[in-house]
Amino acid sequence: MTDAKPRWNRRKEARPAEIVDAAIDVFVENGFAGTKLTEVAQRAGVAKGTLYLYFETKEDLFRAAARQALATNLDAIEKVAAGFDGTITDLVPMLLKRAAGRMGDSRIPAIVRMVLAESRAFPDLARIWHDEVVARVLTLLTRLVAEAQARGEVRPGDPKLLALSIAGPMLVGVLFHEVFGAESPFAPDLDALATHHSEAVLQGIVDR
């Protein structure tokens, strides 16, 4: 006899997070088209019927996966930004360093690559990633730039375009690793890229 309980006998409130965590792994391994909800349920240790209690479609599951994959880091960044009383010269390097650290999680870049590869066949995939991740990041950066402009720290210009200028190279660095591999002599160290780009972009946008 053993006292070990099946995984699906855990507290009900723990199940959605377990299902989503399993789904992230399966999406990364198989892509969106190749992911079967049966496999996700097996990986999470729940019956397929239990999975459907929380997520009616694969798109619903991917939305939850997008949220969970970056939620902790984005929440932390938003809290830091909300309580920060320094200048944008101090804030941008800190935010990019945090982003570089989070992008080191191999599952995040792999999800980005999956979205790019399969968004034509599954338009909802790109829309979900846009709404849950991209829009959230760019909305935060746009607001921070606009506030810095109001304080006279950043030169005039479209805050949305300046926000893209801040975030763009980090995304390119992540995609470089995913597409060409870390073996390429041009594959950037993301932490070093965050430092270098912070210095370069701030020289361009700060109103001195």
From TrEMBL:
Gene3D superfamilies given in the database record: Tetracycline Repressor, domain 2
Positions in coiled-coil regions: none
Signal peptide: none
DNA-binding region: 36-55
Keyword DNA-binding: yes
UniProt key word DNA-binding: yes
Alphabetical keyword list: DNA-binding, Transcription, Transcription regulation
Residue stretches making up the HTH tetR-type domain: 13-73
Alphabetical list of PANTHER family matching this protein: HTH-TYPE TRANSCRIPTIONAL REGULATOR RUTR, HTH-TYPE TRANSCRIPTIONAL REGULATOR UIDR
Listed name of the protein: TetR/AcrR family transcriptional regulator
